[in-house]
């Protein structure tokens, strides 16, 4: 067999990286395959890795360098929570694949890093287990492909926490400032694990000092790891936060998950209005909390809050006629399921959230009409409360249009009119004071004001155009 390597090298000497030689008679199938071969996102051969430092498992790191490693691992973890893949983030840390290699080193810093890596991997396992419950969407909110690498650890979580607490205690007693910083990072990691285990809702108070000098520690990360693990799937754009931003994101996650442990459901549902979009992990924890509650209790609590009627399903069951019994049973099962879904809608991503609200508005209208037909004096009250749910869904869907930038400038006045009509109708319902009612009143006022602003802007534009026409004529 003849070696044609040199012949290919000479033929491609003037060809830049990522460019292809097109043969005569190239077909569509060959062209599609060629695009995959030449695309830097899909072809590992067109990217250069000459700047990558060689990893040495026997490297001796300083406490400052270990702090940088820990901070960078946290930044990669947050990047995964925000929607990057595991092969771009967590798996780029080479020691995470073989943490036992540090067991042979007797220095405290190396042993501390090994303990931290085990705790880090346990955190990833707990987060992966939560995200795998199906409360957020794989490939849409988060990427769960682990490329055949194991996620589950066989190390006991209590043993890992004991190691972290013991390491933090030793490091915090040191006179070395970077050893002290290392101890504080151990406390943060132990706090993350306890929060994910629902053993604690109070984050550790740590003011960390960050180092910008990775030194030899940069060799512990291989940014080309994704090329070894994936095949033909284009990767999403990677954005790794700074170390300080990553820590702030972790502490925000602490504060958000605290709402998942409150008894008051309304505090949980309205927590999303405190700040911007939550991480998929937080939304999954929220939904796990909601789904663990009894659907009858959730619906009856809502009706009691809106109308003042307690145990409404039991009362309606006693009031209806025998001919309505079968229809009532079907209606009751439907409203329980629909209300549970409605409670979870705020936890979906914006695009899906708007679509679900529009769908639920129709469903609640049908359930309200059916409730109004039942016998008894409680049925009209329940029908009014269900109508309020329909209007709440319509209002949230309308507001979601602006969040998704679906409204053209020429449509703004019409959309403000629609949002105002929905909000006013919701505010005029004879129900008890609630956050949803106050929310509707607020948007009714905002919508009315924005209609006036839009109308004034149009009149002002007409005047400006008229003045411009006069000037051009002169």
Automatic annotation (TrEMBL):
InterPro entries: NAA35-like_N (IPR057983), Naa35_N (IPR007244). It comes from Naematelia encephala. It holds the Pfam family Mak10. One of its GO terms (cellular component) is NatC complex. GO terms for molecular function: transferase activity. Residues 18-152 form the NAA35-like N-terminal domain. PANTHER family: GLUCOSE REPRESSIBLE PROTEIN MAK10, N-ALPHA-ACETYLTRANSFERASE 35, NATC AUXILIARY SUBUNIT. This is Mak10 subunit, NatC N-terminal acetyltransferase-domain-containing protein. The keyword Chloroplast does not apply. The keyword Amino-acid biosynthesis does not apply. Transmembrane segments: none annotated. Keywords: Transferase.
